[in-house]
Specification:
2 domains; alpha+beta; Nuclear Transport Factor 2, Chain: A
Length: about 140
């Protein structure tokens, strides 16, 4: 399931509020009372709400039955915990960051970062010990 969320909405179809189930709408409105500018995307596996909260763009993923699966937000590298930031600078100095987000699911926060250099694209995932593990590695063409 998390692989679906981490690949973030590849092949999603745009949806409007009228096509999102009432269960999902109720769950979202209860959880994110002050959300603004809500846009919906829907797949067979989940429904994604993109919205603004406290001047930050966030994403909430729900099952079709209205269960909150995960919340994500893009962050800058300065917002990473010190152990993760130090590890990046030490072990991935020759890479640049192309994507970085925080995911909260089941009360646990995890960071995903995409790094690139001339030869590779790496997606790293933080572990519970405050270090990085390779989630996906792709050779660049």
């Amino acid at each position: 399931m998390w692989l679906l969320l981490v690949t973030i909405s590849t092949g999603s179809a745009l949806a409007n509020e009228e096509t999102v189930s009432q269960q999902v709408l109720n769950a979202f409105k209860k959880e994110f009372v002050d959300a603004k500018d809500v846009n919906w995307q829907s797949t067979k596996e989940y429904v994604k709400a993109t919205f603004s909260l406290n001047d930050q763009v966030m994403f909430a993923y729900y099952s079709q039955e209205g269960e909150l699966l995960a919340i994500t937000r893009n962050i800058s590298s300065e917002k990473l915990p010190i152990s993760l930031l130090t590890s990046l600078k030490k072990n991935y100095n020759g890479y640049w960051i192309t994507d970085l987000f925080e995911m909260v699911a089941d009360g646990t926060g995890t960071y995903y970062i995409t790094l690139e250099n001339a030869d590779l694209e790496l997606v790293l995932k933080s572990d519970e010990f405050g270090s990085w593990e390779v989630y996906r590695k792709t050779k660049r063409a």
